[in-house]
Amino acid sequence: MDEDYGDDQPRESRLHKWNRKLTQGWLGRYFECEKRDSSVFQELRAGTVCFLTVSYIIPVNASILAETGGSCDPKAECTAESYEMFGDTCRFRVDSGYESCLHGLKIDLIAATCISSMIATLLMSLIARMPIAVAPAMGVNAYFTYNVVGFLHTQRLSYKQALAAVFIEGCIFLGLAITGIRSRIMELIPMNIMYSTAAGIGCFLAFIGLQHNNGIGLVTYDGATLVTLGGCGPSDRGVMFSMKPDDITFDNICKQNEEGFWIGEDALGPRSSNVVCMGGELQSATLWLGFAGGMLMVALLMKGVRASILVGILFVTFISWIPTHEATYFKERSSIPGGEERYWFFRKGATVPTVDRTALQLDFGALGNGDTWVALITFLYLDFLDATSTMFAMAHLVGEEVPGFIDAKGRWPRQLMTMCADGVASIVGSLLGTSPLTVFAESAVGIREGGRTGICSFMVAFGFFISMFLSPIFASIPPYGTGPAIILVGSLMMEHSRYVAWDDIRQAVPAFLTIIVMPLTYSIAYGLITGLLAVVVLWAVDFMWESFLVLTGYYQGDKTMYHVWLDTMSHLYVSLDREDILIRDLPGYAVEMDSDAASGCSLGGTSLEGNSVGVGIGARGGPHGGVGLGYPKERSGSQSGGLGKLSFGDAAKAGSVANPVAWDARPDLHDANTSRGPSGSEEESSDPP
User: Distance (Å, rounded) from C-alpha 471 to C-alpha 599?
Assistant: First the structure.
């Protein structure tokens, strides 16, 4: 019987009562639902949306990895006649035996993707309690396939040897997390780079969603400009192959063997999954169906409708399952190849998962091969930078909704467990036969839908569990159904760029390079590397410039090389918890950390010797990070985003300027009495003395 709330209070529905009881019960307490201002039902909804968004990785990852040939041995799988005629190259022929093995391999890879993602995401849920999905990384799986193993074993390492490299990389990755080295390295990255990384991930996601292979197909390849407007129909699409210049000869491409069989296709290399439009732009029915789904998501989100992204995905998916129109995902009318195969696979409804061809296939016999270690190191730094930056971005998305979730140094609750779960993921993936797993940037979709706790990721793990048995259904969600969701989330993630001081060239250039390189190289890691290299170069130039001024007597002895060192390395001292050295030895360095620290504060101070100085503090959880020092004549504080600048001018030396103020280098976010943090809330701040 429902409780009586009185005449002036509406009666609580049964559904809301269950939600309240679950949230206040042991489940909600374990995952800290109320502390993170969430509820169990909200988390379940967000997890469902997140899974539907990341579920595209199930068929895509299996398709990419299957092109390695996996554990299919031509000698054992090719028919006797074909192997006798072509030898190991029978794998490039239309051989029924080898094709059957590749088909079984793909099915096993679907199961391996589901199982490994389920285990990794479940660890993220129960141990780290974060709303983050973990699955095989896009980009890294392509590197694994085409650069390490090669199309059907055309590179120097075999599939089994590459898995051994992934296993060792995962062990090293886990060790870095356990020892805390990974956390320390992350704290050393300037905040302007971390925030631009979040924005860059948004661009990267949008670029994925705009492509033909994993999105709506609005952007396609162009030989002159690299990318151009697409959306053409099947009859206007051209395919692309990658060839070395020396292979582009008539005799090489058109050659035949002694039996008269054409073998020149070997020179063409792997066929690209993306297309080039040869006319008929914007005439694809799937493009407009995806566009309609995206507009539905935006309209519902604009009006505050819950589960707006989920509704949009289901809207497009259900329509695409009708096989009688041009936007269908099934049968011969599908504009994406394989429609007939997808339809019959979909009709199976359920399958029994098996990983016989992929599990425990590791071969450590090539560890003495230099190519193995090149692949291992590449996996390590790609996984490290990609996962770490994405993890930071996802944690800050949660922090925008949960005050105090991110501390002054950018750390969040159970950060070590989050990183350990991520490290274990690659080990699990290698044992099951997949490329390295990592934190999925598409987790932002679930967080935007309200996911703030591990219940969200538990729902994602449950989705992967169901997919092991219902893979025909979840593998049939079209890319133009999830593409609009990815684009929408990418646009929402661009808001992080407002925390970069774009009027400061030392922040603007590295931040811009970080953002733009991510989508254009199809790699989060490469974008982060580019931004960090720009930071280092600018730091070195500035250090040499200031050193030259000191050594030539420009500062007349007021500033020494020791001051230059402390000033330029202030971010490092703060990250290593040695701020006491800066307070003791760096003139004018003053720290007054209070409740504003978590949201980025700006404080005024005075030097110990009477020289006026402005001190701008951008806390690790705020827009900038580190401490910037500005002496009156030269600079204002917080200009460098963590690499503080100390400049002695004539006014400072004479002590003639009273109480200058070095505000955070974002004047649009400050007025005389308020300081606005990343959450957008205004907080009281006292006037500088």
Answer: 44
CB 233 within 8 A of CB 206: no
CA distance 17 to 39: 12
Task: Indicate the length of the chain as a whole number.
Answer: 689
The most distant pair of C-alpha atoms in the chain lies apart, rounded to whole Å, by 94
Coarse DSSP helix, strand, coil percentages of the chain, rounded to the nearest 5 percent: 55, 5, 40
Which residue type does 577 have?
D
Both tokens assigned to 341: 């195969």
Both tokens assigned to 447: 């967080």
Does the pTM surpass 0.85? The reply is no
Three-class SS of 223-263: CCCEEEECCCCHHHEECCECCCHHHCCHHHHCCECCCCCEC
- Report the C-alpha gap between 17 and 258 in whole angstroms: 77
* C-alpha span between 464 and 52 (Å, rounded): 10
User: How far is Cα 639 from Cα 647, in angstroms, rounded to an integer?
Assistant: 12
Q: What is the pLDDT of residues 327-350, one digit of tens each?
A: 888 888 888 777 887 788 788 777
123 φ/ψ sector (left φ>0, alpha ψ -120 to 50, else beta): alpha
Provide the 3-class DSSP secondary structure of residue 272.
coil
Full 3-state SS string of 123-139: HHHHHHCCCCCEEECCC
Give me the residues of the chain with pLDDT under 70, please.
1-12, 86, 89, 92-95, 139, 146, 214, 252, 255-273, 306-307, 409, 575, 590-689
